[in-house]
Amino acid sequence: MPPEVSVVLPCFEEAGHLPELIETLEQALARHFSGGYEVIMVATKAAGDGTPELARELAEYRPGLRRVVLQPPDRLGYGRALTLGLDSARGEWLLLMDADGQFDPRDLAALTSQMNRAEFIAGRRVQRTDPLPRLVAGALYRVVVNTLVALKARPTLAAAACGALPRDLDCGFKLIRRHNLTASGRAFTSRTGVWNIEALLRAAESGARFAEVHVRHRARKTGRSRYSVRRGLLAGWPRPSEAMRQIFDLSRLRRS
pTM for the whole thing? Predict the structure, then answer.
């Protein structure tokens, strides 16, 4: 029998906090999903801290159904990781959660409180702890998203009476009825965080109702992200290659 919810955790270098995150997450899932759950960790061999091996080790002894999906070396990217997780999921609901420790699994209660009135429940980060370059880059990204994509979504939302468009469009903590992402039968094309916008548009097309709730945001304590430059004058800013991929994904999504 399929589980009630499938959790997709895109992982890069998360070995320093992954065991603690999984334990806290399982406690929250057991509390809010009596119909069972599965956790799908999407890892990559490009990680230099042993995250894929640790994920497999956790899958062997942690209770409940657990699977590890490895990204091919030539198919890396946050959006591609989410697509792999979605393709592997079996649950009626899909919980997307970044595995970098910046979200608290106990905030799952805020998401599940809206399950009776919405099919796309997005987190909205309060008191964000990102470094200044990331905050500035995020603000610029939101301007681009609102210009290129949100105008495309609003007519669909209005026609379907879906409710207000979530304001934190790129938050990596959300709960979605899986059917509302797969109903069109089309494959996801975004390989970056633009996947979140593509998911919103797919859900709107399917007539999903939207809700947004406050979730806490914590500073990353261990590991590293593939998104940001690590050293030098550009430390903390998005990698130029990643920024270009996002622009490409947004442009393609706008034309579709």
Answer: 0.83
